[in-house]
Amino acid sequence: MNRKTRNALVCAALLLCAAWGLRFVAAPALHELPPNYYLETRYECDGGFRESPDLPLRTEHQVAVRVDQTLLSSGSARIVQSTTSWFTDDGTLTYESAGVYAVHRNTRANVPDLGDVPRHGQFLFPRHVQRGSFTVWDAYLVGPRRAEFVREDTVDELPVLVFDLVADRINDTVAYEFLACVPEQYEVRTSALTTAWVEPVSGIVVDLVDQGKSDFVDPRSAEPVAPIAAWRTWSASGERERMAVRARNERLALLAVERWLPSTALAGAAAAIAVAASCARRTSVASGAVV
Predict the structure, then answer these.
(1) In whole angstroms, how far apart are CA 101 and each of 18, 38, 39, 183, 252?
(2) Does 22 share its domain with 75?
(3) Is 242 inside a domain boundary?
(4) Helices (H) then strands (E): counts for the chain
(5) 186 lies in a domain?
(6) pLDDT digit string (tens) for 93-119?
(7) Residue spans of alpha helices (H) in the chain
């Protein structure tokens, strides 16, 4: 074997190793929820709110912030503190959902036997999210919602999948326990329809709108007494653009290590093997001519 043939084969072997490493080591690593995962998202809404059934429903502009922060890792799970808090413009708290979630680092689903309460379904949309239906249980509301694929769309020239997330009279009592009459006199049930625009490769929610209501409920009859709140929510100013940039960057990184770079390495390996074969043939022919 001459030097050119040997060098070409070594180059092919290195490129094959690089393709394998990219696809089966680097790509799965990018799929994992980082151990230092942190995300803050903001929303706005116009809606009504009251502290008890005998008070009038006040219509006010409100703002919210959701903060997800990893506290620690436990085996295949990330332990995430997640809180969503709503305030009126004067700082009055109108809703707060908070919990400690155990999130599988690969699937981004809730791990049922960890966290502060047992939960199922997705905490975050997974990488390469599929069209279909599944459960989402995060801190946007206290209880689970059913996600249903609706259609394809684009946001800022980014391809997205649109999902409707339905909350059907979930027990939201704990989110209103800052009110004097909850849970001593009333429980709370919430129904809502959230529409989420999700970049499918990264699983990032790029945009969101939501409308719903929460009711004071008689705990003995389970019948609604009066609305606590009714709202229409949207992403705060600049959030859609910020999340679109984040989703686009993660999409490009994932596609690069899953497809583009391994394909390039495989093509280079094939070319190197072809060069080696050509060199070997020329050497063979030359040897035959000398004989």
Answers:
(1) 36, 13, 14, 23, 28
(2) no
(3) no
(4) 4, 10
(5) yes
(6) 999 999 999 999 999 999 998 889 999
(7) 3-21, 27-31, 239-255, 261-290
